[in-house]
Amino acid sequence: MAVVEDGVSCDRLFDGRIQCLQPLRGYRFTEDAVLLAHFITPQPGDNILDLGAGCGIIALILAYRWPAVTLTALEIQPRLADLARRNAAGNNLEASLRVVEGDLRQSSDLLEQGSFDWVVCNPPFHPLAAGRLNPHDELAVARHEIHADLAAVLAAARYLLRENGRLALVYPATRAASLLHDLKNSGLKPKRLRMVHSHPEAPARLVLVEAALLAGEELTVLPPLFVADVQGGPHATTMASYYTARALFSVPP
């Protein structure tokens, strides 16, 4: 991590091939976003939307891993949207990655209905009544359901996805049952699911879910993903980029 200006750091992925400007304090991307960006399997030419994109890290990873896709990043917070634009420019991705500043609850005013093959989202998941709000506004919006709850995310995804389009989410494993219930009720059928554990002896911490619009009932449950082994090193089932992100991009003290 290098401090490039007041309050902004530049962090790097893929041996420095991707750089990401993000706030030194406030909302910084976490392992969750990196895991989600490695979970989806788009096809060349797919149009992908990142809802609540923050500084644009998921879109940056997808652009690097899948250079033949087109990306849109939607972010409500002005400073983060500006950093996402700068990240697109700094990685020479202006042709394939656009940033839209706005509220996902107003998606119909911002984006064309049924225009995306994929929607990805690392949504806020703490209800307003659950726990203390983070005193930093950006962190509070990112982690608590202030501007959007899961129902709003699913409504936006359903509006914006093409028929048979895919939604991919990362969510707390403890809320997996309610997530699957809400997906099905919204018309988005879960198709792939993977639990994420900190290490093999730990309970699942996160769930990665892919759902499809107007699809059948079949659900594939993938093998669990262990981020580290019991000694804290990278687990054999974990891609190196997962562990690198975990080590390098934690929230600073």
Helix content: 25-40%
Give the biggest sheet: 9 strands, mixed
What is the level 1 CATH name?
Answer: Alpha Beta
Domain count: the total is: 1
> For this entry, what is the oligomeric state of its chains?
single chain
Terminal-residue CA separation = 13 Å
How much of the polypeptide forms β-strand, as a percent range?
25-35%
Please work out how many helical segments DSSP would assign: 8
Task: Give a description of the structure.
Mean pLDDT is 85; it is low at 139-145 and 240-253. The strands form two sheets. Strands 4, 5, 6, 7, 8, 9, 10, 11 and 12 form a nine-stranded mixed beta sheet that branches. A three-stranded antiparallel beta sheet has the order 1-2-3. Helix 1 (31-39) runs parallel beside helix 2 (57-65) and helix 1 (31-39) runs antiparallel to helix 8. It has a single domain (30-248), classed as Vaccinia Virus protein VP39 (Rossmann fold, 3-Layer(aba) Sandwich), CATH 3.40.50. Helix content is 28%, strand content 29%. The protein is α/β, with parallel strands linked by helices and 253 residues long. Strand 1 (2-5) and strand 2 form a beta hairpin. The protein has helices at residues 31-39, 57-65, 78-90, 107-110, 137-143, 150-160, 176-185, 240-248, and strands at residues 2-5, 8-13, 18-23, 47-51, 70-75, 97-101, 116-121, 161-172, 188-197, 204-213, 220-221, 225-226. The protein is globular, with a radius of gyration of 17 Å.
